[in-house]
Amino acid sequence: MELVSLDHNSAPPGAILGMVWAADGTNLRFARWPCPDACRGTVTILTGRAEFIEKYFETIGELLARNFEVVIMDWRGQGLSDRPLKHRGKGHVDDFATYASDLAALEKQVLRNFCPKPWFALGHSMAGAVLLAEARAGHSPFARIVLTAPMIDLHGLRFPRGARGLARGLVWLGLGRAFMPGGSSKPVMTKSFESNVLTSDAARYARTAKILELAPQLAIGDPTIRWVHAAFRIMRQFRDPEYAPRTVTPILILAAGADEVVDTSATERFASRLKAGRCIILPHARHELLMERDSIRTQFWAAFDAFVPGSAPGDTHPANKATRDAGRNLAHLANP
Question: Fewest CB within 10 angstroms: 70, 90, 115, 267, which?
């Protein structure tokens, strides 16, 4: 179970690879990089739909340089974790609560046994929805959460009620394991750079495509109807005005100003209701902030560094202070 490395995207040294077992027996691949000197805690990277460990080597190296231990996992149905369907190209799950059970397995078998506290989460897109739901339910093991382009709502749905009703009806008809209408097993990264909506950085886009060329077993295609139905169900909760205010975990959200995958306006509205959170929009950024151009990633890290690990115990309103500091860091970058 080796990590796939390229000359210009090699795995940071010192990785410990393994498998955790979810409650239903599903095998989940994880990797852990032990803490360097003067450890500041552990950051768990939780990826978006169709992503995999190797895509985040650059980010892992940057976290190690900040003296964090790093843990990352392939969600079920992705990367080299077990896939629930015989057709490996289908992104499938019956309910997003299943992803929560994957996260619980990682916490119990890896974080508790090996990883120094405090624990932090860095979640992208789909993982953002999972982390928000766990934090709202009071189940989050993380002291602070940083989200990039979380899946609060989808971008550009012309008839959202109709889309939700269609997915629900197709599941009822027993078609939940079929690809979503128009979907296929073709990985998104096989599209040309010019037509992609994920990043404006050609080199990083090509890097991910090259990984999948060398290791096609890491790839998945479009989601199933059942996955889409499950996504609509979890996103419906986020529209409740009382949902966000009852989430007490400190949360920093970085949203993309040019996102064509998730709805940045919905993310902004949700974040405005958080008691211990803030949303910072990075102009011109596309959906995958950590795969973006250096100028955008610099803004991300400025906000991250202001928020994690956070203020010392005893500070007044440390969560709110940290999110304000994150905003000031970005303002300084814009107006040096």
Answer: 115
Distance, CA of 335 to CA of 153 (rounded, Å): 32
170 lies in some domain: yes
pLDDT in tens, 18-36: 999 999 999 999 999 998 7
Whether cis (ω within 30° of 0) applies to the bond prior to 118 is yes
| Residue 1 burial by Cβ neighbours in a 10 Å radius (0-12, 13-18, 19+) | exposed
Contacts of 305 (CB under 8 A, 6+ apart): 66, 329
What integer pLDDT is reported at residue 334 of this predicted model?
44
Tell me the three state secondary structure of residue 100.
Answer: helix
Where in the sequence is the domain holding 46, given as residue range(s)? 16-334
Which string of DSSP letters, residue by residue, matches 150-208? --SSBTT-SSHHHHHHHHHHHHHTT-TTSBPTT--S--GGGS-GGG-SS-S-HHHHHHH
Tokens 């979890």 belong to which residue? 234
CB burial readout 140-152, b (16+ within 10 A) else e: bbbbbbbbbbbbb
- C-beta neighbour count of 334 within 10 angstroms: 8
Q: HEC states along 296-323? A: HHHHHHHHHHHHCCCCCCCCCCHHHHHH
The region of weakest confidence among 9-18, 50-59, 274-283, 326-335 is 326-335
| Number of compact structural domains in the chain | 1
CA distance 12 to 111: 20
In-domain check, residue 8: no
Q: What are phi and psi of 77, to 5 degrees?
A: 85, 0
Cα distance between residue 304 and residue 330, in whole Å? 10
For 291, residues 6+ apart whose C-beta sits below 8 A from its C-beta are 55, 198, 199, 201, 204, 205, 208
| DSSP of 52-98 | -GGGGHHHHHHHHHTT-EEEEEPPTTSTTS--SSSSTT-B--S-THH
Residue 202 lies in a domain: yes
328 domain-assigned: yes
